[in-house]
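Batch manifest, entry 17 of 40.
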Amino acid sequence: MAQTPSLSGTPRRGPLTSNLRRRFARRRDLGLSVREFSILKRLSTPQDIQDYVNAIPINHEIGGQTILSVREVIRQRRAHCIEGAFFAACALWVHGEPPLVMHLDCDLSDFPHVIALFRRGGHWGAISKTNGAPLRYRDPIYRSLRELVMTYFHEYYNKRGYKTLRSYSGSFDMRRIEPEHWVTREKSCWPAHDRLAAFSHYPLISTRQARLLSRRDPFERRAAKMVQYPRPAARKK
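Output type: structure tokens
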């Protein structure tokens, strides 16, 4: 059996948390305040969760890179993709659904993306925090994770218009990581991020197929520049 790194960096084997078999996340399990837990409790459907993360301004990371915990997303009212995915996964767990997330990896010229996963009637859907339009919510109509991921392929591109999505992880159950490391952590949750990024990934296209990809045309690239939350203008000293 392969070893997996623990959050402290020391290899360890097997499940990392006793929460793996816990269907419903209780407030005391998560370590959240009554107010924090009540926010998650109100979001009883995936669409409710998506509406909430859409309403939170995008985290432009003005002061430097962050991986905010669920608590910090609520407190700071901002999030980027992995922060929104952690929040969504936690909200799903509160309502008795597994807190599953997926890491979408890409060419080195672009940035990875993270989504939260859910199922309805045996079909997959996704909750996604993004500042643009194309990489958002997916209805639960996809028969496999690969089928779901392929809906992001055409719109996943870098500043030069090249399509960059290359692989996707399996569904990662956040119950494998203690809540103190992604739900209530005050510092950035880099260890949780690293666990997810290191999880097994599956290729989407071959090297030959990558060479055949077309660039998105100028009209598509102009249309995709619309964002929900523009970056704040630099303040004058």
